[in-house]
Amino acid sequence: MMKHLSYSFRVLSCISAAAILTFSLWMLSGPAAPDTAQTAGSMPEYYAAIAENRVVIYITGRAEPVLVTEIDARTLPDADRALLEDGIFLESAADVNRLLEDYSG
Description:
Helix content is 46%, strand content 20%. Strand 2 and strand 3 form a beta hairpin. It has one domain (2-30, 41-104). Residues 33-39 have low confidence and may be disordered. The protein starts with a helix and ends with a helix. The chain contains three helices and four strands, in the order H-E-E-E-H-E-H. By secondary structure, the chain is α+β, with helices and mostly antiparallel strands.
């Protein structure tokens, strides 16, 4: 019985991680309105931070996050939390997905 629960939990965790990645790709692939004060390529498109102990993703220049993950920042290593507290700038949606995959694994 315990092995079955453990296996079910692992399967559910993998499905959840895949759903988060798929949803984040979908959310981040939409067109972002460019900030007129920026020139093309002058700033990274996204950044990751911590809000209410969750890893969140913002589009540069916007105040509201485009993705609030279920990743609890308190479970991350101190070095990763420190980087997120300062904000991690990401060039593309692929970079966002790599970061989320690293943190959800």
